Amino acid sequence: MMDSGERAVVDSLKNAARLKWSGLLRATLAGKQVGVIVMHDGQVAWAASTMQSEDFSAVLERVGLVSRDKLTAANQVLQQQRSQGKTANLGSLLAEECLISPSLLRSCFKTHVSAAIASLVAAPLLFLQAEHETVSVDSCLLFDLDDLLPDFEHGIVFSQASSAEQPAGVSVYEAEKGTLLTGLTLLPGYRYSFIADTEGKILTYHVADRVQVQVERIIPKALDWLSAASTLSTEAEMGLVLSAYLHGETGSLFAQMTDFSKQFFVAVSFSADGKLGVIKHKISELIPAVRKFTEVH
Questions:
Q1: How many domains, in total, are found in the chain?
Q2: Within a 10 A sphere around the Cβ of 73, how many other Cβ atoms?
Q3: 103 & 214 share domain
């Protein structure tokens, strides 16, 4: 549940969206600015927070798969343009240089802006100061507020299913072949993967031919594990859990949250031959397609 501070911030944002307001919402904490939200006709054009775990460059590298060298070069060009009084931003510059597709850039923007707003909403005693200011925005990078707000009313709630047996709540939407996940099969050490929600519903899964495993029986245990990770992340003041990694003697399991509002995650199991960095990279490539897939479920 939201506390009074969180509700006040969310209500302020929703009111600005309802009024189709344009301008800056400066977020301050104890008199110090900790973030900003840019709105245009009630839609969110940009948001950034000193409390989010990644800056936009990190998101572009992780989700957009833009190399660090190219990001460094682009930032240098950006600084030169700004020193000359030109209006420019990193995303547009990368798109102009064909270093990222428009759809992937939009996905990166949404990831960054959602994280920024989530961190601001969760901050206690936050104050939003509205400033009517004309800001240049990209019409292709505008988002409805409801698409960005996490489900703070209920939080991330994982079903507490018994690990001993498959619960009645576990169901399989697409049990035949996880065609969306077949791109993972070429990864070294790949064992199996699945996409599920936090209620235990499996949307799709894929198991390597050499592996004998019942994914349906693993889901309850995975939910228990993710629930523990979510609780620890909150109590340790780390915010909402984004991913979890379980490393065993002969294999590992990595789970990545894909959409807080719908509470889906993708998980990949791999043997000791697998590399976590490679797995994360491949999942980041799949995230846009996974989100599109889960929209209809």
A1: 2
A2: 14
A3: no
What is the separation, in whole angstroms, between the first and last Cα of the chain?
A: 25
Residue-range definition of the domain harbouring residue 261: 171-295
pLDDT digits (tens, 9 = 90+) for 264-292: 889 999 998 888 888 888 888 888 888 88
Q: Are 238 and 257 in contact (CB under 8 A)?
A: no
Q: Which of 230, 208, 205, 226 is nearest to 293 (CA)?
A: 205
**pLDDT digits 0-9 by tens, 181-211:** 877 877 888 899 988 887 777 888 888 877 8
Q: Which amino acid is at 98?
A: C
Three-state DSSP at 167 gives coil
Sequence-distant (6+) residues with CB within 8 A of 84 are none
Reported for 133-140, long-range contacts at CB under 8 A and 24+ positions apart, including other chains, are: 133/23, 133/24, 134/22, 135/22, 135/23, 135/24, 135/38, 135/40, 135/45, 136/87, 137/38, 137/40, 137/45, 137/46, 138/45, 138/91, 138/92, 140/102, 140/106
pTM above 0.85, yes or no: no
Q: How many CB atoms lie within 10 A of CB 193?
A: 30
Does some domain include residue 152? no
